Description:
Mean pLDDT: 85
Shape: globular
Strand content: 15-25%
Number of domains: 2
Amino acid sequence: MTSHPNPSSRLNPASWPRLLLPALTLLALAILAACGSSATTAPTTAPTATAAPQAPAPTAAPTAMAQPTMAPTSAPTPAPVAATRPPAAMGATPEGELVLGLTGYGNEVPIPWQEIAFGKNYGRFIWDYIVGTTDDAQLSTDTGLAESWEMSADGLSWNFKLRQGIPFHNGEEFIAEDMKFALDQTMTIPESPASYKNQLLCCVMENGIDLVGDYEFNVRMSQPQIFLNWDLTDAQGNLGVPVDKSHYDAVGEDDYARNPVHTGVYRWADHLKGDFIKLEAWGEHWREGVPLWQSVLIKTIPEESTRIAALKTGEVDVINLSRERVSEIEDAGFRVYPRPGQAVIGFYFHQQYEDVPWNDVRVRQAMSIAIDREEIVEFIFAGRGSPGIVYPMPLSGEVYGGWDRWGPKLEPYPYDPDQARALLEEAGYGDGFSITMHSYPRPDAPEGPRLVEAMAGYFQAIGIDVEIQPIDSATSIAQRLAWELSNTMTYLDAPNRPFPGFAGLMFTLEHSDGAATSAHDPEMDALVEAMQGALSPEEAEAEFLKIYRMIYDKYIHLPVANLDVSYAGSDRIHADWDRAWRSWEPNYLDLVRRR
Length: 595
């Protein structure tokens, strides 16, 4: 273990008893491990389907649809750390192993600035975030590493005060320089793939993060960013995850990636890229207490039939599930956990500012009306969804008040292949053209390859020749961020989230300087910048609704379907699993909590 040069400068003596607790717990766990524990037997405290009769049934709508409160610019007085620990966890011992079988889970690089938002599928087990959230879409001073945060009246600075006595997995105490280091790395490494990093690049001044002692820092802004607090939560990507700076400096990035040190409920134990990640309980976590399971194994299983077979044989406890297999799994006696209206799936017209056919809005319109969304929902997604309207905003956004409440209701683009062919003729592509489409499954859309085949069929019917290229989604995303997808289409299933999450996404996807933008449009840039410069949520929302309408009117993306997202689980997991509302992962952390 690498220590800081001057440990006494990092540790508050009042926190020493707290830091001894994880070490003592680790010793106890080592003794228990020597006696052996079953990786296939559920802990004796694991609930059964009838253990929590007050909880909603798994097939009921999840709490993900709760109405969120708009992001406050300051936080209330925090509760003591101990008050956030589940009482049932006191003195408990983790047992057994929870196994997740997923199609994929990010880049599998457990360093926040080297991981995309999708990495939260494993990341939330090992990470804590600066700004905390609750499962019902609220900011919380009880669940994050910051005790409080506050934006200045002019929006040009933010102050964060940190919780004291929080240990990294190596026993070192988390302090402000660890968060500053992670944020600085995200902003200064050009090749960083971190999702939403433009939320920092757009607005934080160069060298704009100032330490105020060990437990406080300020962020100086070049322009207002009223949702910076939300950007540092697990509602979005991984911007709010700290890294132990002294340990990182001692071992370097490669070694840190192989043996990362964080502050979460589990520590990194083993990893084979593209195969599995194994995590181990390491002590009594400051927020979650002692977890239910001794270890968590996350296995990569891209092929759905293999995932289902693994569930049926007891090899895994949880899988992501395509919509067409839901009835089969229910009939086999397994629980299905839906997230209704959770995502909208759509395709990108990548790099449409280049000399490519879809540089012409008539081509984008033709391709958008060439597909039969009703047919796709019925035959690809087993009727568990509805035609998409605007990507990347799911229809379930109406739960938050409705995107079109200040204007006429928008309808899905019509299916009109004859008009599509006429538009191509008008744009000078009467003889058609050729494109490439990437094909891959994703955890929230295992049907991806079949969807790509269907889309290719619709496009070929109007004279567009399609080459389907099988690829893994992480590689496809990397090519996208490197601007290597000219004349290539990829898809994504964009999840629901509170409004600040959508506001943050707009710079990344729609502004000319966004890390994953498809278009360079001065009119759109002006709207995004006006939204970014707003000093109230109401002002930001007014600009956002204009962006929403422009995406629709200019056919910037190709929406396909609003989708229910489902997972299946064995009777070894909680019957009342709260899938919550966070984007990119269904709250797997709830599966390790004691009831």
